[in-house]
Automatic annotation (TrEMBL):
One of its GO terms (biological process) is glycine betaine transport. Residues 36-272 form the ABC transporter domain. The keyword Oxidoreductase does not apply. This is Glycine/betaine ABC transporter ATP-binding protein. It comes from the Bacteria. One of its GO terms (cellular component) is membrane. One of its GO terms (molecular function) is ATP binding. Pfam families: ABC_tran (PF00005). Belongs to the ABC transporter superfamily. Residues 356-371 have a biased composition (Acidic residues). Residues 348-410 are annotated as: Disordered. Residues 390-403 have a biased composition (Basic and acidic residues).
Amino acid sequence: MSETTQANPVFSVRKLWKVFGPKAAKVPGDQAYAGLSAAELRARTGCTAAVRDVSFDVHPGEVFVVMGLSGSGKSTLVRCLTRLIEPTAGSLVMDGEDVLAMDSGRLRELRRHRASMVFQNFGLLPHRSVLDNVAYGLEIQGMGKAERREVAARMVDKVGLEGLGERRPGQLSGGQQQRVGLARALAVDPEVMLFDEPFSALDPLIRRDMQEEVIRLHHEEGRTMVFITHDLNEALRLGDRILLMRDGEVVQLGTPEEIVANPADDYVRDFVRDVPREQVISVRRAMRPAADGEAGTGTALAPGALVSEAIEAVARTGEPARVLDGEKLLGVVGHEQLLAVVAGNGGGAGTSPAEEAAEAAVEDAAEDDSAGADRDGDSASGASESDSGAGDKDSADHGDSDNGKAVAGV
Ligand SMILES: Nc1ncnc2c1ncn2[C@@H]1O[C@H](COP(=O)(O)OP(=O)(O)OP(=O)(O)O)[C@@H](O)[C@H]1O
């Protein structure tokens, strides 16, 4: 649960910049440009800072979502990770290795074996069969024909395209074509998969299918994924953590619950305004301390249970539900706390004395837990660093806490 026990990050990005335009290298680090808006910078220098001073870690096994409106810098940022776009300044480390110092051979290796990309427009070769498209990355790696076709056939089955291996991409629906893209990325068995808005061209039902496919694959394989989207619902559904960008900068980084419960500013608040909060916020944020006599009754819920589950329980039984961590009673949730979450004025950190007291109860319980068991195991993987202020601590370690900006999850 602490960052000390966490495995080394897959990607570690610090103070990364990508500036397009004349004399781009002069922009990062020049105080004269630091406070300018994107439009002012463009007017003054002719440059676009697509990625501005961005820092974050991607942890092994997490789905890390990069979200933001069109033009916010998502694609540029993710392409910088494998240097498909060359960063202008900053540092970029993959598994402890400095990516910016890699020569072209090492970089090719990285792109072919360690990080594979799934694109919005599928990027399939039209004259090749599905099987040969899926095998393409293996062919580039130099794998022999029989072996690669065998691997490809397994991947085709894995993504639900059994029996379609001999078709051409043009004979498939959009959703099926994207499954081919997915299978092709999986075939090389990469350490991390990078998705650039892969489902935005698909209609909503197919899109939902594909999201479930990604969730299924993620659960089955625990593979690290970096997923770009401009769709908040997609981000909330898929992301263990979400990096929210605006004009090339990080506005907030956190779990879906943190972002919905505690938006960093009005921009994020606006972004999440229509999210059904009860389906994202957990009872550990909503609970109040138990009163005398409440310890023994009411439905028992885990701290990570969603408020929507608690609503169902409280409506059914007519009494507050208990929030239990194992045997330990952390607090209770009744009508008032649950309605407050739905109404948008509950479930944020420290928004009421009752919630502060409830948070203190969680912290006490955590301190009591001398065995250090992973009590966040019931929630998204990124949650392990959520409420503890670990992000603040680390950002100080890295000297990244300037501007009061959410420095991302390090
Ligand atoms: N090659 C380039 N030259 C100049 N400016 C560029 C270049 N590529 C991107 N930009 C600019 O950088 C900014 C970020 O673009 P980027 O494509 O990363 O955004 P995005 O968030 O991925 O957008 P979308 O969701 O529309 O794909 C935009 O202002 C864009 O116009």
